[in-house]
Amino acid sequence: MITETMQNAINQQIARELYSSNLYLAMAAYYSNINLNGFANWMRVQAQEEMVHALKFFDYMISRGAKPLITQINAPKTEWSSPFEAFQDSLEHEKLITAHINDLVNLSIKENDHASNIFLQYFVTEQVEEESTVLDIVTRMKMMENFPGGLYLIDNELKQRKFGA
Ligand code: FEO
């Protein structure tokens, strides 16, 4: 049986993943409204992936005989001052999520919970990938800052992202 401390920590992470999903959906709406449909597509797929993350934690709790708790989720920000600012925010958000995943891993060690530790390794790897992908896009957006049309080149590329790919 998973300890109550670990259950509480995982429940908080479920809320964070659901918040992440809502945040990326809000970013998708922002990009759609300024006609950057590739960026909007990328964020929409990201929102779906965050829901998958939430469900992975949800299913893990059930597999350990615990009850996942679904709580109120704070509303995300809905406006950004520029396309760059929104992507920069997503990078900062992913760094925050990485810190929380690291805290969960530390807790699993403290609680002597080997099963949770193994389960969490997936998210350790996933966060490296998420931060790296977002950083790559943010860096390229910055490089294209003074290049007219640069944003549309990236927008075209981001149209290709598909959920589950
Ligand atoms: Fe679920 Fe973007 O981390």
In short:
The chain has 165 residues and is mostly helical. The chain is 75% helix and 0% strand. It is built from 5 helices and no strands.
What does this structure look like?
This protein is mostly helical and 165 residues long. It has one domain (4-158): Up-down Bundle (Ferritin). Helix content is 75%, strand content 0%. It is built from five helices and no strands. It has helices spanning 4-33, 37-63, 83-110, 114-143, 150-158. Helix 2 (37-63) packs across helix 5 (150-158). The two termini are 34 Å apart. The mean pLDDT is 97. Bound molecules: MU-OXO-diiron (FEO). MU-OXO-diiron (FEO) binds at residues 17, 20, 50, 53, 94, 97, 130. MU-OXO-diiron is lined by residues 17, 20, 50, 53, 94, 97, 130.
Task: Based on the model shown, name its key terms.
single chain, 165 residues, mainly alpha, Ferritin, 0% strand, elongated, binds MU-OXO-diiron
User: Quaternary state, please?
Assistant: single chain
Please tell me the CATH architecture by its name.
Up-down Bundle
Number of helical segments with 4 or more residues: 5
Distance between the termini: 34 Å
**Biggest sheet layout:** none
Rg (CA only): 17 Å
Structural class: mainly alpha
In terms of DSSP E residues, the strand content is under 5%
| Structural domain tally | 1
The CATH homologous superfamily: Ferritin, core subunit, four-helix bundle
List the ligand species. MU-OXO-diiron
Number of strands: 0
Q: Helical amount among residues, as a percent range?
A: over 70%
Low-pLDDT runs of 5+ residues are none
Quick one: CATH class?
A: Mainly Alpha
Quick one: overall form?
Answer: elongated
Elements, N to C (H/E): HHHHH
Mean pLDDT: 97
Q: Which fold name corresponds to the CATH topology?
A: Ferritin
